[in-house]
Structure formats: structure tokens, C-alpha cells
Design a protein that fits this description.
It contains four helices and seven strands, in the order ααββαβαββββ. It is α+β, with helices and mostly antiparallel strands and 182 residues long.
């Protein structure tokens, strides 16, 4: 009996590599990050996705691989910005999309404030992008540019993968953020 063909996700994980070469990346953590990247690209229509293993601040290895990319619409609007938008009758769909960090985790992982602090310490407020990046998954190039800073400080999406491969996303801020207006 012939071996079945690997699934599209299995092939994607096997072929994926971090955009920045980092030594000693845990194979399982890398596969989890590649699975989240695949989910963002194919289920949620994100573009310009990159898999990072090194900190953009000091090029040290991150505690675990992390993904960055552009969502199809704005993920979070700071409360102060939301008030300005309401005053100027700006629709949320008309607001520019911001590049986001995504931290892949498994449901069985135990997280502490120290682990979150370590993750945030290795990240810039807004992900850097390669100047040569044309919107592909893992564009090469060494030139990086920083996009504008954003209100509310550092944030990331916590991507939690369940045993059945379901991925759930939560917004996590580095510190306390003023609540949104409803």
C-alpha cells in the first residue's frame, strides 16, 4: 500500500524556515509557528507574513519563534484614536492596517507574567519589515524599515492552538491599556 501524500499544512511546515536564520530553534516550536502562519494566510487572509527567530532589537534568539504580518483589516483601535475617528466620521474600514506581532502557543503551554515579559522584551513596538518585501510569506532582504509608532505601546496577538488544530487569537498588551468606548 502506498504512503498517503502529506497534507498541505504538513508540506508547508516542512518547507518553512525563519526569515532570519537563528541557531537552536526548537523544531516543535518552529512547527507551531509555521502552523499559525499557515492559518493566518489561508484562513484569515493575512499578507506579508514573516517568521522571526531573532529579536529585531538586538538579534538575540527570541524565547520562541514569532510571526508578523498584515491582517486584512485593523485588529485594534486605541480608545483615544477611536474617539478621534468618531468625531471625524471615519469608518473603521477606512483606517490603515498595521503590521502585527503574533505569538504562537499551544493550549497545553503554561504562561506566566515572566514569560510574557520575556516575549515583549525581544520585540519592537511595531514589527519591522524588509524593504524588498513584496507581500510574500517570507521575503528575503536585509534592509529593514520601522513603521510609525502606535498608541498604547507594545501588543501582540496570542495565537493559541488546540489539540484539534483550532487556532484562537487574543490581543495582549504590554502593560495596562485604557478600555475601549462602546
Amino acid at each position: 500500500m502506498a504512503k498517503p501524500e502529506p497534507s498541505a499544512l504538513s508540506s508547508f511546515i516542512a518547507a518553512s524556515k525563519p526569515t532570519d536564520a537563528a541557531p537552536n530553534v526548537d523544531v516543535h516550536q518552529h512547527a507551531l509557528a509555521a502552523q499559525v502562519l499557515h492559518n493566518l494566510q489561508h484562513q484569515h487572509d493575512w499578507t506579508s507574513l514573516r517568521l522571526h527567530a531573532l529579536s529585531p532589537i538586538d538579534s538575540r534568539p527570541l524565547p520562541k519563534p514569532i510571526v508578523s504580518g498584515l491582517p486584512p483589516h485593523r485588529i485594534y483601535v486605541h480608545p483615544d484614536e477611536q474617539i478621534e475617528m468618531l468625531k471625524q466620521d471615519v469608518l473603521e474600514k477606512d483606517v490603515l492596517v498595521e503590521r502585527e506581532w503574533v505569538l504562537p502557543t499551544h493550549l497545553r503551554e503554561q504562561w506566566s507574567l515572566r514569560k510574557f515579559a520575556d516575549a515583549f522584551d525581544g520585540l519592537t513596538e511595531v514589527p519591522t519589515v524588509a524593504l524588498e518585501d513584496s507581500g510574500g510569506n517570507q521575503a528575503g532582504g536585509t534592509g529593514l524599515k520601522q513603521t510609525k509608532s502606535r498608541r498604547g505601546g507594545k501588543r501582540l496577538l496570542l495565537a493559541t492552538v488546540g489539540d484539534d488544530s483550532t487556532v484562537v487569537y487574543y490581543i495582549v498588551h504590554d502593560g495596562i491599556v485604557k478600555p475601549r468606548q462602546n
